[in-house]
Amino acid sequence: MGKGGTSAIATPVERSRRYVVLVAFYFCDPHSPWQRGSNENTNGLLRQYFPKTVDLSAYTGTDLAAVARQLNTLPGKR
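^ that's the sequence the OP posted. Answer follows.
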């Protein structure tokens, strides 16, 4: 969620490869933990790029794709 709760970035994550795609304005259904999976960890990583005080609606699809590309190339245990 962005500044004032008026904008958001969705973080679909492919579970086996942990491939990230960033999309504007999507929310999981309440009380549906199977829809979240690796997303909580990814959301923590996203805070490095998009702090809570930032209005996320200012970012374009190109901006989101650049961050997703950086996340997808991070070294890590799979």
